[in-house]
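Hi all, posting the design record for the shared folder.

TITLE: backbone redesign
STEP: 1 of 1
STRUCTURE INPUT:
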C-alpha cells in the first residue's frame, strides 16, 4: 500500500511539473507574439492607385482614423475606405464586387500587401528599420 501511495505522489508531482513547464512555454510565446505585434516603429504604408504612388503614411505616428480613395466616373465610380488603427492599416470597405481587399484584413508587414484588383489599388507596408531579407513567399 505504501508503494502505491509513493507512485501516486510521484505521478502527481510529474503532472504538476509538466503543467508548469507547459504554462511557462505558453506565457513566453504569448509575450513574444505581443512584443512583435506592438513593435510598429518604422512601418511605412505605401498606397498605389493605377500603378502610381499616391500616398505614403508613417503608421507609427499616424493617429487612428479612416479615409476614402476614390476613382472612376459616374457609372463606374469606385471607392475604397482605408482604416488605420493602432499602427496597422486595412481596407475596411469597398464597392468592388468580391470585396477580397476587405477580407484580407490588416497589413502588418510588407510580406503580404493588400490588393484590390478591380480598383487597381495596392497597399504595401514596409519597415524602414529592417532590411528586406525575404525574397519569396509561397502558399
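Okay, here is what came back for every position:
SEQUENCE:
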Amino acid at each position: 500500500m505504501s508503494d502505491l501511495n509513493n507512485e501516486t505522489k510521484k505521478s502527481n508531482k510529474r503532472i504538476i511539473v509538466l503543467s508548469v513547464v507547459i504554462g511557462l512555454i505558453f506565457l513566453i510565446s504569448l509575450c513574444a507574439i505581443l512584443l512583435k505585434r506592438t513593435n510598429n516603429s518604422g512601418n511605412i504604408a505605401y498606397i498605389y492607385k493605377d500603378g502610381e504612388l499616391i500616398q505614403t503614411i508613417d503608421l507609427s505616428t499616424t493617429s487612428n482614423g479612416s479615409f476614402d480613395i476614390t476613382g472612376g466616373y459616374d457609372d463606374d465610380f469606385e471607392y475604397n475606405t482605408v482604416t488605420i488603427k493602432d499602427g496597422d492599416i486595412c481596407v475596411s470597405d469597398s464597392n468592388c464586387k468580391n470585396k477580397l481587399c476587405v477580407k484580407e484584413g490588416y497589413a502588418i508587414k510588407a510580406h503580404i500587401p493588400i490588393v484590390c484588383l478591380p480598383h487597381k489599388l495596392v497597399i504595401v507596408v514596409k519597415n524602414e528599420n529592417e532590411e528586406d531579407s525575404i525574397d519569396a513567399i509561397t502558399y
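COMMENT: The CA atoms of residues 111 and 137 lie 8 Å apart.
Let me know if anyone wants the other runs.
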